[in-house]
Amino acid sequence: MASVNIDNLNSLSNLHPKPENTFAYGTAGFRMKAELLDSVIFRTGILASLRSKKLDGKVIGVMITASHNPAADNGVKVVDPLGEMMEGAWESHATALANAPSNEHLFDAIHTMVSTLKIDLTKPANVVFGRDTRPSGEALVAALVDGLKVLGAQSTDYGILTTPQLHYITRCLNTAGTPEAYGEPSAEGYYKKLAAAFKILVEGKPRLSPLILDCANGVGAPKFKEMLPYLGDSFSVKIVNDDVEDASKLNLNTQQRAPIGLKTAAGERYASFDGDADRIVYYYQDEDNTFKLLDGDKIAGLAAMYIIDLVKSAGIDDISVGVVQTAYANGASTQYLRNTLNVPVSCVPTGVKHLHHEALKYDVGVYFEANGHGTVLFSPSALKTIYAAEGSSPAQAVAIRSLRALSEVINQTVGDAFSDLFLVETILTQRQWSPKVWDQAYTDLPNRLVKVVVQDRSIFKTVDAERKLTEPAGLQDAIDAIVLKFSHGRSFVRPSGTEDVVRVYAEAATRPETDELAFRIGGLVFDYNSCGSGARPREFI
Ligand code: NG1
Ligand code: ZN
């Protein structure tokens, strides 16, 4: 069996020494302070090469970004051939390579993978990569390029991209020339595809007022501007927070409030991207000056309502629509989906891969996290039905054309803030709705997220899509006893996958009750078997 050239590995690896730290490839890939990432990204280059070889030379994507984290952080994620997140079983291999303490151990870790996974090293390796606007990205790309040299991968640097663009390009490259060809593998191809579909979707409808779009001073700003010429007069937007030169401004947004420096006014429509443009939320200001958030749950509700209607209008009766949420979905949204729209709703653990996987079970699967990450997946059979349908009336033909365009405007690989923006704008334009009308579908229950810093979050074990704790023993019973006292009360506790904390979610009938519930559960967790770390937060009850 072919082997890795050890001299080549040693000389490249010596340029990227591993610090003492221990690394873990989690739901968001590797993510931490940028200065710790050099060796991790070098080794991710090796991992991506192995993944490509294992998949017979299919193109693997690598994205360097830390999404909504502060500018000083960075991270890396590996993208599978059809643009999905890397197969879960490979996360432990990524972790093993990242933690090998010496060049010799790294050599051994690579060979362990080669033999256990039966990787043929003589196969070609093809990798494409991109990065967001973080200043640390350039040096990290150099580390990745060195990693790609270890196994002689062919690679293409796509420069600065949004995360979903890199996913799109990866899928395009692997499907080119097949019946599933996804588009031209470039940012330009992506703009053309989305813009053409959006134009069809809003054809003949009066334009809405301009959208005020906050780009969090991240990569969404230059990329959305790049897209504008392709949209022509189909869409009007005012971009704010587009300063990507001053890194300190990246992701300065706060939760459940308008972004810093943005003065909102009644009658306007706003949206915010996160730092790598894979998440979006909408908001507006009510006449009485209250800030109203239209989050991922609201987008899921709007999309499901619209798609169900469109399928009906198209005269197609054999396409099932389903929605996938996590435990963080507002209880009122779940009720609305189940009881008003009568659509099946599944609840899965946090993490896009769980949502994506579950959504594939429906003909049309709508999935969204409350924080605005999500998309709509059309199954191959649903697409076949939609493309075969002809319609027996002009109205049916229009609905069929819209369904086809919808499947093109919505990124099928991963949650995409651009796609989701065009999805929402399509529906609001078709219906001529203001954000306020959209918001009237249901009223969110007040909710609150609280972080509890604990000594060891790994002692918290959950079941039932993270809604129940099995360990520490007895804690769930104590939580249930408190929740029972609150009208419409719901609360759950789970360890974060991306931060060293335990998260408490609470919702209840009123704002004061919600806050009380969140802080009582926070206090309970902090005190339980002395789990908490540091000073007990003063707001905990
Ligand atoms: P954790 O830290 O595991 O709660 C957070 C988000 C997820 C997801 C991941 C990946 C919440 C409560 N959690 O996960 O939804 O976006 O980050 O970035 O928003
Ligand atoms: Zn993101």
TrEMBL record:
Matching Pfam families: AMG1_III, PGM_PMM_I, PGM_PMM_IV
Cofactor: Mg(2+)
GO biological process, one term: carbohydrate metabolic process
Catalyzed reaction equations: N-acetyl-alpha-D-glucosamine 1-phosphate = N-acetyl-D-glucosamine 6-phosphate
Residues the record marks as active site: S67 (phosphoserine intermediate)
Segments forming domain Alpha-D-phosphohexomutase alpha/beta/alpha: 60-92, 105-177
EC numbers, comma separated: 5.4.2.3
Pathway of action: Nucleotide-sugar biosynthesis; UDP-N-acetyl-alpha-D-glucosamine biosynthesis; N-acetyl-alpha-D-glucosamine 1-phosphate from alpha-D-glucosamine 6-phosphate (route I): step 2/2
SUPFAM superfamilies, per database record: Phosphoglucomutase, C-terminal domain, Phosphoglucomutase, first 3 domains
Domain (Alpha-D-phosphohexomutase C-terminal) ranges: 450-518
A molecular function (GO) term: phosphoacetylglucosamine mutase activity
CC cofactor note: Binds 1 Mg(2+) ion per subunit.
InterPro entries to which the protein is assigned, alphabetical: A-D-PHexomutase_a/b/a-I, A-D-PHexomutase_a/b/a-I/II/III, A-D-PHexomutase_C, A-D-PHexomutase_C_sf, A-D-PHexomutase_CS, AMG1_III, PAGM
Phosphoacetylglucosamine mutase AMG1 domain span: 295-433
Keywords: Isomerase, Magnesium, Metal-binding, Phosphoprotein
Binding site for Mg(2+): S67, D274, D276, D278
Binding site for substrate: E369, A370, N371, R494, P495, S496, G497, T498, R503
Function field: Catalyzes the conversion of GlcNAc-6-P into GlcNAc-1-P during the synthesis of uridine diphosphate/UDP-GlcNAc, which is a biosynthetic precursor of chitin and also supplies the amino sugars for N-linked oligosaccharides of glycoproteins.
Family: Belongs to the phosphohexose mutase family.
Listed name of the protein: Phosphoacetylglucosamine mutase
Organismal lineage: Eukaryota, Fungi, Fungi incertae sedis, Mucoromycota, Mortierellomycotina
Gene designation per UniProt: PCM1
